[in-house]
From TrEMBL:
Transmembrane segments annotated in the record for this chain: 162-181
Keyword set, alphabetical order: Kinase, Membrane, Phosphoprotein, Transferase, Transmembrane, Transmembrane helix, Two-component regulatory system
The organism's place on the tree of life at top rank: Bacteria
Stored Pfam families: HATPase_c (PF02518), HisKA (PF00512)
Organism name: Paraglaciecola polaris LMG 21857
CDD domains: HATPase, HisKA
Reactions that this protein is recorded to catalyse: ATP + protein L-histidine = ADP + protein N-phospho-L-histidine
This enzyme's EC code(s): 2.7.13.3
PROSITE patterns: HIS_KIN
UniProt name for this protein: histidine kinase
Annotated InterPro entries: HATPase_C_sf (IPR036890), HATPase_dom (IPR003594), His_kinase_dom (IPR005467), HisK_dim/P_dom (IPR003661), HisK_dim/P_sf (IPR036097), Sensor_HK_Regulatory (IPR050736), Sig_transdc_His_kin-like_C (IPR004358)
Amino acid sequence: MLVIIACFYSTNELQKLTQQEAQQKLHLGLAEHLVSDNPLLKEGVYDYAALSNLFHTLMILGPNFEFYYLDPQGKILTYSATPGKVKATSVNVGPIKQLIGDNQSFPVEGDDPRQLGRHKIFSAAPVYNNEQLQGYLYVIIGGERYDSILANLQNSQSMREIAIFLVVGLLLLLIALLAMFKYFTSPLKRLSDDMDKVRDADFHRDQLPRDLALWNKNSYNEVDRLGCAFTEMLAHIDSQFDQLSKIDTQRRVLLADLSHDLRTPLASLQGYIETLAINADTLSVEDRKHFVDISLKNAKNLKHLIDQIFELAYLEGGQVTLHQEPFPLGDLLHDVAAKFALDAQEKNIEIRVSPNHFEYHVFADIGKLERVLTNLIANAIRHTPEFGKIDLVVATHNEKLRVDIRDTGIGISDKEIAFIFDARYQANNTEKDACSHAGLGLAICRKLMALLNSDLKVESQLGKGTCFSFELTLVNNNHLAH
């Protein structure tokens, strides 16, 4: 709008200058013809009253002009206007000489005697008497009446121009607002369309069309960032749906497998108890004792399976409370090794702690860590043949304390090592014993180590042995003193 106003003003000024130049060129010879055709002026007038009447008559014939007679210095001697209208007593003769001379640059403006400080275009001619300069005939082009009529017309035209300008300005403003509105609402519309497509696809990402909008994550536009957040949220929700679906499938399989594992000892227990109940009078003391021992063994297996199921459920549900404290790791390792001394002796397996004596203290939950070590050593004994070895190796690693449980057992194949921490998974070469195993031990160990901010790792070679390892937070002496 400022540019339009500037152009409008410049055009009016240029039009005004062009009009003045045309008017001045058109009436350039007016004063000269009046001087040559009028006897009073031609002979060098001295009767100013008669000249004033002549100017008055000429002004009536040409109301667009005002006539003045000046002496050679520019002093006003007589004029055509009503007495009292003329405010100036003299006129600058510089512009007059410029107009009469050869070097003319139109329009040339001279003083307006009716208003001090204002300039108007004019026509002028010298008045001679026997080649003696008597003065100048000074004719203002566009007198007071002309200015009044022109001002009224210009006011009317200005009102029309202002009205046109306002209409055009409002139209341009409306177009600009519509363009801005479209610019700001277009991303919102794209985001809304994407949301409709997601809803129509029932929030399944794999059923979405491929024409979803692409959003710029680093844009300064808030809608772009909102679109990125919506897309990432959709991907995250879809990932969660997939995980929930997988977990639900795993739970169903786990439940079916556990039901089978529980049914076996329960059916055996029920069968022996029914036998005892039905044939109590006919069974010998030895048979009765044998049936009771088998029932007790099945009951223990059943309790062990149920305990593992509840433990895994509590770990997955996050319903475990940690009691972490600094304690000497060496004492714990020797205690756990001593707990399995009889089982290891039955298979002639040697359990060693390396180094045998150390002063390392760790910050952890001693009960949870003992549970992990118990499971790992029990598995190592079960899968290690006679005259094997189990080493509990402790060493510092990256400002932490690393614990390795190494055995010389049957090992795990490369194809199966990635699945051994899954609940209910048992390797093909798993050693069988008298106890029933649900395959939950390693899954429980990994979750317990995750609670202790550590990760249970495994390395194994088939036929050579397996090594389970984890790292613990090492406590320095200053911490112990504190």
